[in-house]
Amino acid sequence: MTKLKLLRFYQCSKLSNVFASLNPQLQLKELEVLHVGYCNALEYIFGKKEDAPPCLRELKLDCLMRLKSIYKCCTELLDLCNLEVLQINRCNELKVILPASAAQRLGKLKELHLDNCYQLEAFLAKQQEGEETIENLVFSQLRMLSLVDLPNLTGFCTDYTLTFKWPSLEKVEVVRCPKMQMFVAVVASDEDSSMPKLKMIKVDGVDIMLEGTDINRVMQGPSN
């Protein structure tokens, strides 16, 4: 059981915490893929930082209507340093996915898909008093970002004092996110140096060439 690579929880109606439900003697040090869906009582994925499997590469969450947070304890940093794919769909209680400080440990993230989360306001929350303070974030391996049917999303991060770099980002898709007026602040003075590989984004099915245009201006629309 210690060599388990893939774990799925589906239609577990009484499950409120994924890892708290498991035998405490069970070791998941080699777990790489975790899928959780249609668990109507689930409130948290990770109850404490020790719950996060160190080799986890793929996390997919679908139709978790009571999910409040990925991580219950906000005072400790969750380490998902090997995560490559994060997909969250139809989790309507989520307002943010992670605190900004946790993003420092997402250095291997390659794909991020957020769909049909109706209360979601941002992927990363504002930094709070008592948290580790950061100024710059680099998503060094993120290649694909998809934001679909997020009616309350205002931006990738609600803390616009943070600056970002996306050296590998090639594809951005934004569909039906009407409140999204700003993507993020950028770490460099021009878009080319912060997103050197991103030449085009897709907004509501329309391909828009950046051609040196600030991505935030694209999100604001032609009238601005």
Automatic annotation (TrEMBL):
Keywords assigned by UniProt, alphabetized: Plant defense
One Pfam family linked to the record: LRR_RPS2
Domain Disease resistance protein At4g27190-like leucine-rich repeats: 2-117
UniProt superkingdom: Eukaryota
InterPro entries attached to this UniProt entry: At4g27190-like_LRR, LRR_dom_sf, Plant_NBS-LRR
Protein name: Disease resistance protein At4g27190-like leucine-rich repeats domain-containing protein
Keyword Flavoprotein among UniProt keywords: no
Organism: Hevea brasiliensis (Para rubber tree)
